[in-house]
């Protein structure tokens, strides 16, 4: 069959109408229009909320999320518990039983649960005297720029469900990720780059448990595929298959895309599948990215002062420092949501060695990122979040010595920090008991859903109103359980009434 016959056959297929397609098209057409005309506007949330218009004036135009996969220990970083030194090796098994502590399979068989005081030394920093450990010396220098939340808690005790809850709002698979929700709700600031970009940073601790993560954490779920995060690779081509094939120049590629788009438009008109529209848009985005991505990844115009700010590793593709600098470049070019995944934080053993190495990866680079955003006038409208999926136990997993120990998973209390976009710097929020076990300031407890509501609020989105109709329900990032905006940490909030 020659090419002309092939196109005729495809055209016939596209324009033919089956009985099923007839009813689908009419249901989506006249019937849908009639229904829309009868319903009040506030019930059409999936239509009105995806226009790229915020619900109120946003403080944040963009978000950078540093995701520490594996769950860093709050006891070694931000939650200072000096009295633990006096209780070295004290068995708290009875305390755990009385508290109804959930145990993982990794420690449930232990005969004892001995207290492991932190090896790290703490000091107070900044005008507010924020406690930060000596394995984060650069973070200590920016204590007045960040708000440390020590009262985070979650529902999950294992990594995969905890990460899904943290980054999609639910422990169930198939839901839209946080970055996808923001892309859907806010729209694009730059048509030549994706709205949501994902970076995977190398870690330097060769012995750490490296948790596997899936694309669900940056996937679009039930939203259109165009809202999914786009991976930018640190080695080789930043995006696979972006380059033209040998012998294909830009003019020929444009002609090919125009022909392919015409065929896809005919199929879309015949079938009505929104994913066809997404495919058309993705081809066009790839075409535009052929010009924008090489400029994005060309670091030659960055000053030596900037590289020194982020650290020497910022010149090495794939390092966390390089990813942090890339996050700033993406943000200033209009990318709405940039997520840096840094794995290797699952320290069930050899914690002093491994967490020190992991902190060295991220410490100066995060300081550099905040200072770089600040000096460029971007920190006021950029929200930065730093943290993992849950915390770590005060008791040791496995063998405990004065210089070595491990910690198991702990969902009841953990620490993160936030900065920029009107978040109050130089602040510690929430307190835990002497074992960093329970949160003792109930009015300051921050569930993962509360964190999501707060992030959305900074971006000008009401978490009650940002919805998408799917399977007969108005889906939300914050789900159906109660969620609140943590107004106490914000300089000004539109959601104080909630």
Description:
It is built from 13 helices and 15 strands. It has one domain (55-233, 311-489): Alkaline Phosphatase, subunit A, CATH 3.40.720.10. β14 (468-470) and β15 (473-475) form a beta hairpin. α1 (3-15) packs parallel to α8 (250-271), α8 runs antiparallel to α9 (274-296) and α11 (320-332) runs parallel beside α12 (351-375). With 498 residues, the protein is α/β, with parallel strands linked by helices. It starts with a helix and ends in a 23-residue tail after the last strand.
Which value, in Å, is the CA radius of gyration?
25 Å
Write down the CATH class: Alpha Beta
Roughly what is the average pLDDT, rounded to an integer?
86
Domains (count): 1
N-C termini distance? 65 Å
Number of strands: 15
Keyphrases for this structure?
498 residues, alpha/beta, Alkaline Phosphatase, subunit A, two-stranded antiparallel sheet, 13 helices, 15 strands, 14% strand
């Amino acid at each position: 069959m020659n090419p002309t016959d092939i196109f005729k056959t495809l055209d016939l297929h596209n324009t033919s109408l089956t009985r099923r397609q007839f009813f689908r098209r009419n249901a989506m057409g006249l019937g849908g229009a009639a229904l829309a005309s009868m319903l009040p506007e506030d019930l059409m949330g999936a239509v009105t909320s995806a226009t790229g218009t915020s619900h109120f004036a946003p403080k944040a135009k963009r978000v950078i999320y540093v995701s520490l996969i594996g769950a860093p220990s709050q006891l070694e970083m931000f939650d200072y518990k000096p009295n633990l030194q006096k209780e070295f090796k004290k068995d708290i098994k009875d305390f755990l039983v009385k508290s109804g502590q959930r145990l993982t399979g990794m420690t449930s068989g232990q005969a004892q649960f001995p207290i492991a005081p932190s090896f790290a030394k703490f000091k107070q920093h900044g005008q507010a005297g924020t406690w930060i450990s000596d394995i984060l010396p650069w973070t200590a220098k920016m204590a007045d720029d960040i708000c440390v939340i020590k009262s985070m808690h979650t529902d999950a005790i294992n990594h995969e469900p905890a990460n899904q809850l943290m980054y999609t709002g639910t422990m169930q698979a198939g839901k839209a990720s946080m970055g996808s929700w923001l892309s859907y709700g806010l729209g694009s600031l730059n048509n030549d780059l994706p709205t949501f970009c994902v970076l995977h940073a190398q870690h330097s601790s060769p012995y750490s448990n490296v948790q596997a993560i899936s694309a669900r954490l940056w996937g679009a779920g039930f939203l259109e595929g165009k809202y999914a995060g786009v991976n930018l690779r640190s080695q080789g081509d930043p995006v696979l298959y972006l380059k033209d094939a040998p012998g294909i120049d830009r003019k020929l590629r444009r002609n090919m895309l125009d022909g392919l788009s015409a065929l896809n438009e005919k199929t879309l008109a015949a079938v009505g599948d929104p994913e066809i529209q997404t495919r058309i848009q993705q081809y066009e985005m790839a075409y535009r990215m052929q010009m924008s991505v090489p400029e994005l990844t060309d670091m030659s115009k960055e000053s030596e002062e900037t590289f020194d700010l982020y650290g020497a590793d910022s010149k090495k593709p794939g390092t966390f420092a390089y990813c942090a600098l890339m996050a700033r470049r993406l943000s200033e070019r209009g990318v709405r949501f940039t997520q840096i995944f840094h794995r290797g934080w699952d320290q069930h053993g050899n914690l002093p060695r491994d967490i020190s190495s992991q902190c060295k990866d991220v410490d100066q680079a995060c300081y550099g990122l905040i200072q770089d955003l600040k000096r460029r006038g971007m920190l006021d409208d950029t929200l930065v979040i730093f943290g993992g999926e849950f915390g770590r136990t005060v008791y040791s997993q496995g063998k405990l010595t004065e210089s070595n120990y491990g910690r198991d998973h702990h969902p009841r209390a953990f620490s993160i920090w936030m900065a920029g976009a009107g978040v109050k710097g130089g602040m510690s929020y929430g307190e835990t008991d002497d074992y960093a076990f329970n949160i003792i300031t109930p009015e300051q407890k921050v569930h993962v859903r509360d964190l999501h509501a707060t992030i959305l609020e900074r971006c000008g989105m009401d978490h009650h109103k940002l919805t998408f109709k799917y399977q007969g329900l108005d889906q939300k990032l914050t789900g159906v359980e109660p969620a609140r905006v943590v107004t106490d940490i914000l300089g000004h909030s539109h959601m104080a009434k909630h």
